[in-house]
Amino acid sequence: MSRRAVATVGLCGAAFAVLVACSDTPAPAPATKTVTVPPTSRASSSAPATSGGSSSFNAPGRVFDPRTMQADVRKILTETYQVREVGDVLCPSNQKVEDGSTFTCTVQVGGEGKTVTITVTGEDGRYEVGAPA
Question: Does 19 reside within a domain?
Answer without folding.
Answer: no
